[in-house]
Amino acid sequence: MAKQLEPPQPLPTAPDPYAGMVDHFDLMAQTGWGADLEAAFIDFIEPSGHWRCLEAGCGTGRFALRLAERVAGVVGTDRSEPMIARARVNAARGGIGNARFEVAAVESLPGPLRSTFDLVVAIRVLFFLPDPVRGLKQLVPTAVPGGWVAICNPHARMSPEVAASYADANGLEGFARESLAGWARVAARHLAWDEETAVVRLQEAGLTEVTATPALEGLGLFAKGRRPPSSAG
């Protein structure tokens, strides 16, 4: 009798490092500093009401849902299934029908998203990636020719000491203070950009009309650039 073969075993997959942090990220986006940062980022972007937008690394969708109130529609993507599940719940609870959420990593956005969006944003996500420049370059093809790509990262000056000083000056207490301190600690372990570096990186990614500015009294950094209208693909 022939030996019966064992069924193939599934390849091991890396555990989702953010699965247990859904509540943390959801609440952080609603704190005074988190909500203020996101509102200021929308003002920096200057969205148009007819725009179709993508947020890569959307987490629990709080920023995408804020943006959806100003534009025609938003697609949010994140590598974490629990984050996307919460984003869908948040959209349903808010009665926001022009936002949808899909599981996809920044570094491997689906092909059908290419040349689709008038605006592509990544807020508080690129600096987490092993290769932020590669992540940025993956965003550019999803914008339509002439569309915009915008990022929000910690500023190069961000540190636990600077965050504590900001918290003292702005009366942050409890979770608001703790979450800002946590963001500062994470930022200190990753590569952060100043304005000059951000401009160079966006230009290297193929963007034009690039601008960058400090945010949240210098703790954050906003930058945006335009995909050339002649771009193809």
Write the layout of secondary structure elements.
Elements: H1 22-28, H2 32-45, E1 52-56, H3 62-68, E2 73-78, H4 81-94, E3 99-103, E4 117-123, H5 132-139, E5 143-154, H6 160-169, H7 174-188, H8 195-204, E6 208-215, E7 220-226
Parallel strand pairs: 1-2, 1-4, 2-3, 4-5
Antiparallel strand pairs: 5-7, 6-7
Helix pairs in contact: 6-7
Per CATH, what is the topology of one domain? Rossmann fold
Helix tally equals 8
Strand arrangement, major sheet: 3-2-1-4-5-7-6
CATH class bucket of one domain: Alpha Beta
* Oligomer designation: single chain
- As residue ranges, the low-confidence spans are 1-13
Helix proportion range: 25-40%
Query: Any idea what the radius of gyration is?
Result: 19 Å
Question: How does this structure look, described?
Answer:
The chain has helices spanning 22-28, 32-45, 62-68, 81-94, 132-139, 160-169, 174-188, 195-204; strands spanning 52-56, 73-78, 99-103, 117-123, 143-154, 208-215, 220-226. A hairpin with a 4-residue loop joins strand 6 and strand 7 (220-226). It is 36% helix and 21% strand. It has 233 residues and is α/β, with parallel strands linked by helices. It is built from eight helices and seven strands; from the N terminus they run H-H-E-H-E-H-E-E-H-E-H-H-H-E-E. The protein has a seven-stranded mixed sheet, with helices on both faces. It has a domain at 22-41 and 48-155 and 192-226: Vaccinia Virus protein VP39 (Rossmann fold). The model is unreliable at 1-13 (pLDDT under 50).
